[in-house]
Design goal:
Layout: E1 2-12, E2 22-33, E3 38-42, H1 49-56, E4 64-69, E5 72-73, H2 74-80, E6 85-88, H3 102-112, H4 119-129, H5 146-157, E7 164-168, H6 176-193, E8 196-201, H7 204-210, E9 213-218, E10 221-227, H8 237-244
Parallel strand pairs: 3-8, 3-9, 6-7, 7-8
Antiparallel strand pairs: 1-2, 1-4, 4-5, 9-10
Keywords: ATP-binding, Nucleotide-binding, Transport
GO biological process, one term: transmembrane transport
GO molecular function, one term: ATP binding
């Protein structure tokens, strides 16, 4: 479904006026995600994970390389398949309008696309999908816990019936107990709605719990790529380091 081919991305150093003063963030990134798969992208802060997600969402352009969805450029694919790609961000507080009610947060993508018929019923159904009651419809973001608000963000992400969802550190800001609940929800939605995921994280246990494959990103390069079932067989030193840091790890 998704192909990332030899992608490079750099940024100018802060305050620099010279093109040569560039920070290379991604260097020759290539991978594929098949329809229905969940691929985990794991790496430390600053490894380039979020930059890659912005490129895939077409929020930024690569310096070099190609990103396609179903063999079409992102721009063409998105025009033909409006609402079919969505994202859940790490910071659930800044990714919603604090002046919106929960109903408005969830239905905003549908309203933008002109899907206004039975909108309240749809919002109620979406809340039910993420295990929240209709009592939340008229509440505001500040009245919700972190886990509840991230569920609202997930409901918004699936409101347009997407096929491909980017989860950009979507559980990183939550308490450990809530992370487990959200992972269970994401598994359920993936199966029920036949979703394809790119799950970006720095937590190997979370990746192992949700994903079919994992890509290890280090300093802008993919150091290792493995099926989850073969994690213990890695010979890559960076992957070994991450594996050894996980307590009671289960592949």
């Amino acid at each position: 479904m998704l192909k990332v081919q030899n992608v490079y991305k750099s940024y100018s150093k802060a305050g620099s006026l010279f093109r040569k003063d560039q920070i290379q963030v991604l260097s020759g990134i290539s991978f594929e995600i098949e329809e229905g798969e969940c691929v985990g992208l794991i790496g430390e802060s600053g490894s380039g994970k979020s930059t890659l997600s912005r490129l895939i969402m077409d929020l930024e352009k690569p310096d070099k390389g190609l990103i396609t969805l179903e063999d079409e450029s992102i721009q063409v694919w998105k025009k033909k398949n409006q609402g079919q790609i969505s994202v859940v961000f790490q910071d659930y507080t800044s990714s919603v309008n604090p002046r919106f009610t929960v109903e408005q947060v969830i239905t905003e993508p549908m309203m933008i696309r002109g899907k206004q018929e039975h909108i309240k019923t749809k919002a109620t159904q979406l809340l039910d999908r993420v295990n929240l009651s209709s009592q939340f419809l008229n509440r505001y973001p500040h009245e919700l816990s972190g886990g509840q608000l991230q569920r609202v963000c997930i409901a918004r992400a699936i409101s347009t019936k997407p096929r491909f969802v980017i989860l950009d550190e979507a559980i990183s800001s939550l308490d450990v107990s809530i992370q487990a609940q959200i992972l269970d929800l994401l598994k359920e939605l993936k199966t029920d709605l036949n979703l394809t995921y790119l799950f970006i994280a720095h937590d190997l246990q979370a990746v192992a719990s949700l994903c079919d494959k994992v890509l290890f990103l280090y300093k802008g390069k993919i150091e290792e790529r493995l099926p989850i079932t073969e994690l213990a067989r890695t010979e890559n030193e960076y992957a070994k380091k991450l594996l050894s840091s996980v307590i009671a790890f289960e592949a």
